[in-house]
Amino acid sequence: MTNLLSLKTSPYTHFMQEATVELPNQQKLHVEIGGDPANPTILLIMGLGAQLLFWPDAFCKQLIDAGFQVIRFDNRDIGLSSKIKKKGKRLNTIKMMGRFSFGLSNEGAPYNLYDMAEDAKLLLDVLQLSKVHVIGASMGGMIAQILAAQYPEKVDRLGLLFTSNNQRFLPPPFPKQLFSLIGRPENRDEESIIRHSIKVFNTIGSPGFVNQIETAQTARKLYQRSYYPTGILQQFLAILCTGSLLHLDKQIQQPTIVVHGSRDRLLPPAHGKAVAKAIKNAKFELVEGMGHDIQPYFIPKLVQTFVQYFNH
C-alpha cells in the first residue's frame, strides 16, 4: 500500500507518515499512516470539525504497539483535506435542529454523512485495503455506522466512541456544550480563536482531566495547521441533513463495541446506549468520568478495550 503513495514523515509525530490521497469522487483526503502494513489495519474517523490530530499521538502509538497499522485522516472540509465551496441560501440551523430532534428530514446541505462515508470507502479502495477495523468518534462514529452498513465488505469489526444514531427523542446535547462547539470566537485574530478553542475543550471535555497547558498547545497547533470555520458549519449541516441512522444500525452485522463517557454532556450516554441496543449483539461499555474527548488518563483504558475486542 505505501508504494502507492508519496509518503513523508508527519511533521507532528515521527511514527506516522503523511500523504494527500486523491479519490475518484474528486475529493482529496489528507492521511497519516503508522505501523507495519502487514498488520491488521484500524481506520480512525474523527468527529465534527475535528482534524486528524484529535486522535492523540499516544492513542495511535499504543494501537501500533499492540500490533496494528493505524490510519487517521482529515474528513472533507477540515484540516488539509478538500474544502467544499457552496453558495446558496442561508439555512435556518435552529429550525433544522428542531426537525432533526423529532426525526424529521432536512435538506439543503452541500453534502451529508453518506457522502463522507463514501469518502472513507474510496480511501480504503485507493489504499487497496479490503477489510479493516474501524473506530469512529462522535460524528465519525455516525460515518462509521454508515460505512459498516453500506459497505460491509470493507469493515471487519466496528468500534464506536461517544457517538449517536440520531434516532428521534434522544436527550439533546446540553446547550452549553452544543453552542460552544458551533459558536464563534469573539474576534478573528489568532489569540481570540485559540482562546475560543480552549473554552470548547474545557466545556465538552472530561471534567477534572483537561490539562490547560497541553490544551493551549494543541489549540495553537490546530489553528496553525488549518483554520476553516465554514467546514465546521457545513459538517454540522451534514449531520442535520442525514437524520436518524436507526434503520442502518439494524443492517450492521459486524461485531460492534460502543464506548461512551459517563460525563459526556454533548452526547449524553443515552445516545451510545441507543446505538448499542439497535445493532445486533453490540457490546456497550461506559467509561466513568470521561467526557466528549480522549484525555491521556483514559487512553490506556480505551486502547485496551478496543484491542481486546478487535483481537477477540
UniProtKB/TrEMBL annotation:
A GO MF label: triacylglycerol lipase activity
Domain AB hydrolase-1: start-end pairs: 40-295
SUPFAM superfamilies: alpha/beta-Hydrolases
Lineage top rank: taxon: Bacteria
Keywords, ordered alphabetically: Hydrolase
InterPro entries named among the record's database cross-references: AB_hydrolase, AB_hydrolase_1, AB_hydrolase_fold
UniProt GO BP: glycerolipid catabolic process
Record protein name field: Alpha/beta hydrolase
Organism: Acinetobacter populi
Upper taxonomic lineage: Bacteria, Pseudomonadati, Pseudomonadota, Gammaproteobacteria, Moraxellales
